[in-house]
Amino acid sequence: MSRSVGFLLFLVLTIGGGLAIGYITLPGEWYAGLVKPSFNPPNWIFAPVWTVLYIIIAIAGWRVWDLEMISAQRFWWAQLALNFLWSPTFFGFQQMGAALLVIALLLVSIIAFIRVTWEPDRASAVMFIPYLAWVAFATLLNASLYLLNPVA
């Protein structure tokens, strides 16, 4: 497979998958009715932030694929699977506790990706730093929502 086709596939998979899952699991009434922490961002911010992050995630994934970095590829695929699992768990099944576990594992997989790519491909590692920051914030938000909205 050519490099440009590989790059295009990573973009389509990551951005397309992320946007599709986001569309299928729109927050809806349940989320609107939750008690939110004071630092909860407005809903409109999530789509543009995730779109930019998905582009960065795709580029980093393509780079470790192109460089044949097997260990980094494993963490990249793990983070993508966990990323795509979080929205259905939180919004679809409305399981904030399970979603907190998923996002904590996502955070660990992002950190592991950064760690294994730091020396051999610093650019990919650095690209994941904004993703790490956003997911750390999202983890705090998920935990806060879980604590503020006990299940009856």
UniProtKB/TrEMBL annotation:
InterPro entries reported in the protein's UniProt record: TspO/MBR-related_sf (IPR038330), TspO_MBR (IPR004307)
Domain of life: Bacteria
Membrane topology: Multi-pass membrane protein
Record-annotated membrane-spanning stretches: 44-63, 75-93, 99-118, 125-148
Compartmental location: Membrane
CDD domains from the UniProt entry: TSPO_MBR
Pfam families recorded: TspO_MBR
Primary localization: membrane
Keywords of this entry: Membrane, Transmembrane, Transmembrane helix
BP term (GO), one: tetrapyrrole metabolic process
Cellular component GO terms, alphabetical: membrane
UniProt keyword annotation of Iron-sulfur present: no
Similarity field: Belongs to the TspO/BZRP family.
Protein name: Tryptophan-rich sensory protein
Species of the source: Phyllobacterium myrsinacearum
Lineage: Bacteria, Pseudomonadati, Pseudomonadota, Alphaproteobacteria, Hyphomicrobiales
